[in-house]
Amino acid sequence: MTRADGTRRLAILLTGTLCLLAQSTTPAGSGASREGYRAAYKSWRETDPGLERDAGTAGQALTPRTAKAAEAAAAYGASRTAFLRDLAAREAQNLQRLQGAEIQPLPTLAPAPDLLRFADREIGTARASASIFANDPDRAIQQLRQAFERERLALNAVRTAIGDRQKAEEQATKAALTAETARAKALEQYSFLASALTQSADLMNQETAAWAAYYPALAEASRSAPPASPTPVSGGPVSSVAPSAPRPPPIAPLPLSRYVGVWAFQKGGAFHGPEPESVEVAVHEEDGHASGTLSARFKVPPGSAADPVLRFQFSGDFRATRNQTFALQTSDGAMGTIDLIPGGPFNVLEVNFATDAKAGKINQGDVLLVKQ
Amino acid sequence: MIRIVCFCAVMAATAAAQSAGQSSSGPAALAALAQTAQQKRADWDRLAQSLDTSILALLPCDPKATAAIMEVSKASEARIAATAAYLQEAGRQAALQAAAARSVLASVEPLRPDLAVEKLDLAQEQLAVKGQTSALADPLINSAGGQRRPSFNGPRDDLRQIAALEQQRSDAVDSATSHADSAAGAVRDMITQLVAREAALKEAQAAFEAEGSRWTAYYAARLARAQMECNVTRGVVATPVRPSGKQGKQTGKQQ
């Protein structure tokens, strides 16, 4: 072995080792590693652990701290989403491989029944001809009879071989059908698997966006918070029914009556998306917290299996914004959001909702309602 | 550096795999072979079915009779060769399918521990969000003169939404784990059946080869009988000899 060969072998060995090391922390074919997102997570969580604790007192000083934390959260979110996307992509690739691997039974290239029929017919002819000459003493005729006999034996051998081959083909077809059934099952499970992994990556993406919204909201809340008074440590509990307790300051920029109350869809009213037959929304408020229900029936095409009825509950805190958004949950468990958008006239409310897609269910709508 | 080296290695492997894939066009090649085999069978069938009728009108020593038998025999050989080629390719592709399924299994098997780690990391994230939510619920933050401070409602809602998203992620990981187990089980079953199919195809191939040689022997016997018919007509009788034991071979020579 020359020195150059030795160097080459060493380089190959080193390359292989490096690849193995890289693979140990990285999903196959991925550009994002678990170690990478873990480091980003640690860095984020160590950036400013006291942010929420200080939010009540820090005021303006919290803003640069939240900006820093938001940056670290975004870096982590990107790294984590990339990791999950890689994981999902790997399984999606496997799903594709399974989809393209249809297992076909053997086609009928040499149909045994036809061939057997042919052989039987020829055997019959040879046998009949041989029997005609069976008792003929002529030597030449006897030789001809033997030729017929040999032909018949050859055909019998063909017949046996066809039967053997048919059995082997039947085994292959049976195995192909069973394998195809297993492939169909694997395909179904892989579809669910790939979909769950993709969903996981999508949710992480949404979570990254939610963190991006959270930190500015925290900074804003800290800036606008009145100085906190420490909770009294002596003097007994504060009565929750004190008649003189001041009302909470207005929450939304518009009067709460623009949201609170019972609202209904008027025939011929404006809508976007599925056409409603009836919509009724009830909104309540208590201590700045909203809760309510929506009950609606939509027009569905004749013969459609879609459920025309939609019911959900929603709740959340009023915010200092004109449009109010609350989390909702439908009667069959789907999650979503509802926007309450005060209209131009005081007695009009636009309601815009979206829920997780469910087969045969209305999952979004936008209607103008009138106060009842 | 590691990434570059690995990327180059992966690209080289991908290129090699693509090149291999192109050289064997897979199902398309198989379909073409099936079509050829069916065509050859139809050709043979047409000739074989009409052989007796076409010979009947000829004199025993008419060379057209021998030619007709030879033509059917050749068509039979062509049919056998085409079907054998199909079975050989089917066997090759069955082996490739089994190898591909093994590779899918090798990929899904390590997913379970991956997902378990995923779940642990997620639990840590959920715990951290709970901590943040508790910190925001602290009375110093949330009370001003005994009242709730609505200014913190927004961030609290954001954290609630984040917690909900994390819970959904956790559910998605649970679902993935369960389906990964089922998928691995189904792929294992599939591999078992593909291996059985591969073996059955090999047997079918061997059985068809045996059948092919029987057909060849039959047409040799058929030709020998025609020859004998001619000899009898001419009054030529073969000297009796000990049978050679091989079918289709003429057992005598002309006197």
What does this structure look like?
The complex is a heterodimer of chains A (372) and B (255). Chain A is α+β, with helices and mostly antiparallel strands and 372 residues long. Chain A folds into 2 domains: 201 residues, no CATH class; 116 residues, Lipocalin (Beta Barrel), CATH 2.40.128.20. Helices cover 51% and strands 18% of the residues of chain A. Chain A contains 6 helices and 9 strands. In chain A, strand 6 and strand 7 form a beta hairpin. In chain A, helix 2 packs antiparallel against helix 4, helix 3 runs parallel beside helix 6 and helix 4 runs antiparallel to helix 6. The radius of gyration of chain A is 39 Å and the shape is elongated. Chain A starts with a helix and ends with a strand. The N terminus of chain A is likely disordered. Chain B is an all-alpha fold. Chain B has a single domain, classed as Helix Hairpins (Orthogonal Bundle). In chain B, strands 1-2 form a two-stranded antiparallel ribbon. In chain B, strand 1 and strand 2 form a beta hairpin. The radius of gyration of chain B is 38 Å and the shape is rod-shaped. The N terminus and C terminus of chain B are likely disordered. The chains are: A alpha+beta (372), B mainly alpha (255). Chains A and B meet through helix 1, helix 2, helix 3, helix 4 and helix 5 of A and helix 1, helix 2, helix 3, helix 4 and helix 5 of B.
